Structures are given as C-alpha cells and as structure tokens.
C-alpha cells in the first residue's frame, strides 16, 4: 500500500499548508511491462493499494486534476508519499473499508461543488436580467 498527503503553497504565510478536502488527486500505477494496474481518483490525502504479479520496477504517478486549486496556490503542490512493500503490511478489510469511504467523500464533495457552481450561475443570470 501507499499513503500520501498533499500541501498547497500559501502566499500569505509563505509556507506549505494542508490541502483542502476539495483537491482531487489521480493515482496511476504501472507494472514493469507498462500495464496499468491501478487508476483511481482520490482526495487531497489517501491510501491506495495494488497487487502486482510481475516482479521489477513499478511506476507510480500522482497528479492533481484541480487546476483551479493549483493556480490559487501559485502552482505549488507538495506531495508526501509513503510506500510499504510486502504481504505483512496489508490489512485488506480495513483498507477496503477506508477506500470506499474516501471514494464516497470525494464524490459528495464533487457534487457539492457542482451545486455551488449552478447556484452561482443562477445568481449571475438573475443579476443580468434584473
């Protein structure tokens, strides 16, 4: 499994601060043959797991899909990544339960953002008409 958390650059304090939960991170893992064995959307921090049957070097790619957040932070995003290797590191039922929760939390956040955007557009239309 891998754990990560992100920090966004804060211009006021000139330091990295914990990211807001609205930040979306995409995690992709490729095996030594270049085959994608994990491709999932997570939040500003998360825990991902993957099982590979191919020995060798694996590629782990994390990227933010929130350009709005990145621009707000002056384009600076710091990622703390912790990778654990081996059978003994996995508590599969616990990981599965946490993964489902973060997935639901992220989806709820995305839906709330969409509702907020619709409300803003409706208010804008009202102001223009009035």
From TrEMBL:
Stored InterPro entries: Emp24-like (IPR015720), GOLD_dom (IPR009038)
Domain called GOLD: residue spans: 1-85
Keywords: Endoplasmic reticulum, Membrane, Signal, Transmembrane, Transmembrane helix
Membrane topology reported for the UniProt record: Single-pass type I membrane protein
Compartments reported by the entry: Endoplasmic reticulum membrane; Membrane
PROSITE patterns linked: GOLD
Pfam family, one: EMP24_GP25L
A cellular component annotation (GO) from this entry: endoplasmic reticulum membrane
Highest taxon listed in the record's lineage: Eukaryota
Family, as annotated: Belongs to the EMP24/GP25L family.
Protein name: TMED4 protein
